[in-house]
Amino acid sequence: MRKFAFIVTLLLSIVMVTSVLAAPAPKDSPLKVMINGKSVNLKPTAFQRGDKIYLPLEATAKEVKATVKFDKVKNLYTVTSGKNSTIIQASQVVKAGGVAMVTLDLATKALNCNANWGKSSKCVSLTVKGQTTPAPRASGGG
User: Fold this and answer.
1) Residue at 71 is within a domain
2) How far apart are CA 127 and CA 114, in angstroms?
3) What pLDDT was estimated at residue 3?
4) In this structure, are residues 36 and 129 in contact, taking their beta carbons and an 8 Å threshold?
5) 43 vs 53: CA distance, rounded Å
6) What's the confidence (pLDDT) of residue 60?
7) Alpha carbon of 22 to those of 2, 9, 15, 17: distances in Å?
8) Residue ranges in the chain whose pLDDT is less than 50
9) Residue 109 sits in which domain range?
């Protein structure tokens, strides 16, 4: 009888552990991105996971005219924006469909940008330091 109770307890423990491990990851929420006041369509799209915002490193760099190089031997990315270079360790990168994604904080530092996050609009707005955002066009009659 003790053997039977032990086996039942063991099986229930295994079922409970596997159900916790099999729980789905939090769903990523896609985000709109604007760079210097213009809407851009990044591939893959930027997303929010929990309280962090992720941007595709190379696609975002291309939009702000920065370059990204990956060193397979050292396992790090070098991002060059203007005269500034930033090293990003591969451990700081999340892969999404094989694409390097970095947090908004890391992207703004590496790409020499300021960022605004519109939580309700789900929009990330980047402004490259030293560049101006185009003024909104006046509308209406007159």
Assistant:
1) yes
2) 5
3) 64
4) no
5) 15
6) 96
7) 30, 20, 10, 9
8) 10, 15-25, 135-142
9) 29-127
Query: Considering its fold, how many domains does the chain have in total?
Result: 1
The DSSP bridge pattern shows strands 32-35 and 123-128 to be parallel
Which CATH number covers residue 67?
3.30.457
Domain assignment present for residue 9? The answer is no
pLDDT at 99: 94
Sign of CA dihedral 118, 124, 130, 134: negative
Angle at 62 between CA 56 and CA 66, to 5 degrees: 105
Give the C-alpha separation, 77 to 1, whole Å: 60
- Dihedral sign for Cα atoms in the order 18, 21, 27, 28: negative
Do the Cβ atoms of 47 and 54 come closer than 8 Å?
yes
DSSP string, the chain: -HHHHHHHHHHHHHHHHHHHHTSPPPPPEE-EEEETTEEE--SSPPEEETTEEEEEHHHHHHHTT-EEEEETTTTEEEEEETTEEEEEEGGG-EEETTEEEEEHHHHHHHTTEEEEEETTTTEEEEEETT-PPPPPPP-S--
